[in-house]
Design brief:
The chain is α+β, with helices and mostly antiparallel strands. It is built from 8 helices and 30 strands. The chain is elongated.
Length: 384
């Protein structure tokens, strides 16, 4: 279907997506950076908050009036949900389609953006969209509208199951977080907002208003003092909260564009930090899965403890799937290799180990699925 888009560029230029959750539309948090293809009409949508702010416009949401205001000093644009009329510098113009609200996200016509906001739109043969304004250019992925609708319908799923691997059957708690939901956002939290502190997992969940939460990186849980330092990098809201210089253990990253990925240690993390695209990160390891296959080498990542190298234990893992979901699990006693096999069976294309044992904690949809056996240093959360 996407290859046919080149035949319909004119039609594809009919609509632009204004995407941002209603509550934080005036905040600095990132909009989802993807184009939406409405296959029934062959119309396409792109995120205007990303586009507008990236290309010099301020965005303001007036919730009571269901209006969105754009301004850049010389031009003002006012849209109203479910209305085809738009004001440009105070003058009324007619749109080909009405802006509409889906799960707190407002969508508006793309042709209007190209002609009025000064953004050039170009389709690639792959179906990806290139947006250009002056010297600034960005390329975004195209997603079918029905895929977004599925994410809106089921942003989080949770279940308990048994996974059969090569040597045993493993009891697994599984949570999937759909990153294509327009309002999903991931970040890290740390105990009492103080590095070196610990706090009940439940308190972190309540304080951060998390919809999903999982324990994060290792920490000095057995310290005889009150100071229990985490061992890996932690990034919160784009800021490095805890460093682990020289540590090449695997890292989970959530980007400012709403993607998730697993990267190989400090060197790769620093590259992404320099590019300014890291919203949240937690470093733990070892890696479990790469390109959909078991790929784990704890010794190469600097692990020496038998708890990681050879022993079986209750464990926690996180990964990503080809469908654009984050998968989080807690398990019965397994080795790291067996944990990797479980993640492959559950559909992970990339995955890594998190802290485990008494630190394993998993919460979703209002339920404490796996209660940790100790206070925790840090956690990874998803909100909607």
């Amino acid at each position: 279907m996407l290859n046919k888009l080149t035949k319909f560029i004119a039609a594809a230029l009919l609509l632009l997506l204004l995407i941002q959750t209603i509550g934080p539309i005036q905040s600095a948090s990132a909009a989802k950076r993807y184009a939406i293809l409405q296959e029934s009409t062959n119309r396409s949508f792109v995120p205007i908050r990303y586009t507008a702010e990236n290309f010099g416009y301020k965005v303001q949401w007036k919730g009571e009036e269901q209006k969105v205001l754009l301004s850049n000093g010389s031009k003002s644009v006012e849209f109203t949900v479910d209305t085809k009329q738009v004001k440009v510098n105070g003058k009324l113009q007619q749109l080909d389609a009405s802006p509409f609200n889906l799960a707190g996200t407002v969508y508006i016509p793309l042709r209007f953006a190209g002609e009025t906001l000064g953004t050039e739109v170009e389709w690639q043969k792959s179906g990806r969209v290139v947006l250009t304004s002056g010297s600034k250019k960005t390329e975004i992925e195209t997603i079918a509208l029905n895929r977004i609708e599925r994410a809106v319908k089921t942003p989080v799923s949770a279940s308990s199951t048994t996974v059969e691997i090569s040597k045993k059957k493993v009891s697994v708690n599984v949570v999937y977080v759909d990153l294509y939901h327009p309002a999903v956002h991931m970040d890290t939290v740390y105990a009492n907002n103080k590095i070196g502190s610990t706090e009940p997992f439940k308190n972190m969940i309540e304080r951060s208003k998390a919809s999903v939460a999982v324990n994060g990186t290792f920490f000095n849980a057995y310290s005889t003092t009150d100071v229990k330092i985490p061992y890996g990098y932690i990034v919160q809201s784009g800021k490095v909260i805890n460093k682990a210089s020289g540590d090449e253990r695997t890292i989970f990253i959530y980007t400012k564009d709403g993607d998730a990925q697993i990267v190989d240690g400090e060197t790769e993390l620093k590259k992404l930090l320099d590019q300014g695209i890291v919203e949240a990160a937690v470093q733990a390891g070892p890696r479990l899965v790469r390109n959909g296959k078991v790929d784990t080498n704890p010794t190469a990542e600097g692990f020496k403890d038998p708890k990681v190298l050879t022993n079986r234990a209750g464990r926690t893992a996180i990964g990503v799937t080809k469908e654009g979901k984050v998968i989080i699990i807690t398990t019965s006693a397994v080795t790291i290799k067996e944990l990797a096999e479980v993640m492959v069976k559950l559909g992970a294309t990339a995955a890594m180990n998190l802290d485990g044992g008494a630190s394993s904690g998993l919460y979703a949809k209002g339920t404490m699925i796996t209660p940790p056996g100790r206070d925790l240093s840090n956690a990874l959360i998803a909100t909607f």
